[in-house]
Amino acid sequence: MPSEAPVAGISPSARISPRAQIGEGCAIGEFTIVHDNVVLGGGSTVESHCILGHPTPLAEDRPLVIGPGALIRSHSVFYEGSSFGPGLVTGHRVTVREKLAAGVNLQIGTLGDFQGHATIGDYVRTHSSVFIAHHAQIGNFVWIFPHVVLTDDPHPPSEVRRGVVVEDYASIATMSAIMPGIRIGARSLVAAHSLVNKDVAPDTVVGGVPARFLCESSKILHEQTGRPAYPWMRHFRRGYPGEILASWARQFPDEGGRP
User: Fold this and answer.
1) Does residue 19 lie in a domain region?
2) What are the tens digits of pLDDT across the range 130-157?
3) Which range of residues forms the domain containing residue 128?
4) pTM value?
């Protein structure tokens, strides 16, 4: 049944299906289209010229579910069949296809292109122009910087699909390409402009074309503190809730053992 909850700030030019479920306190901008098979959580903002729940038979009638408190910026397109936890944030002109399941507070940068049929954990940050191919498995607290490509076809064009796996807390720097089926280990760093065609071990740094082992991540020193820059959770705090920071203080004490 469609929601009867009141909504706030819906533009007269927006086209909202009466079958869509719109949560309380949502704002929907000019010329945005919300199709039938959509559940939009309360307190969300959808800016102008967006499309939510773009129909596709590949979704197999699954709804597009967007958790509460989302901010979807203008000209973004979300197909039906994907789901997002609370606090989704996007840049402009984002495209997300069907059957992508994402956790809490996913951030998608401007011109992000997520091909769906993939999983993404909690508090994942992706910057502008990131491409994520089918069957990717991305863990929690992952950083993916601008113009990174996660591929899936080992000998294109073909019907074979081998998704990239990115484990918790890994970082992939700008302009890197990750080949199909590669596993990026937890807390590792892929240097900028790398072509990764072999698995990356946890807590290591790789770089180059093709990427090769450079050092253990703990060998990289923070420019301000002089202490190891990785794991980055020891010193980077912006944008994470207090309970997460408290757990990091226990898990990742600094060199002197202090939280």
Assistant:
1) yes
2) 999 999 999 999 999 999 999 999 999 9
3) 15-227
4) 0.93
Angle subtended at Cα 132 by Cα 126 and Cα 133, rounded to the nearest 5 degrees: 170
Q: Which residues contact 163 (CB under 8 A, 6 or more apart)?
A: 118, 133, 134, 135, 136, 137, 150, 152, 180, 181
What backbone torsions phi and psi does residue 89 show, to the nearest 5 degrees? -135, 135
Tokens of 233: 């959770």
Distances (CA, A) of 250 to 155, 221, 240: 44, 21, 15
Residue 4 located in a structural domain: no
Say how many residues make up the chain: 259
Tokens 């990239």 found at: 164
Work out how many domains the chain is built from and give that number: 2
Q: Do 39 and 56 form a contact (C-beta atoms < 8 A)?
A: no
Question: Tens of pLDDT along 164-195?
Answer: 999 999 999 999 999 999 999 999 999 999 99
The CA distances from residue 7 to 11, 21, 30, 158, in Å, are: 11, 11, 15, 46
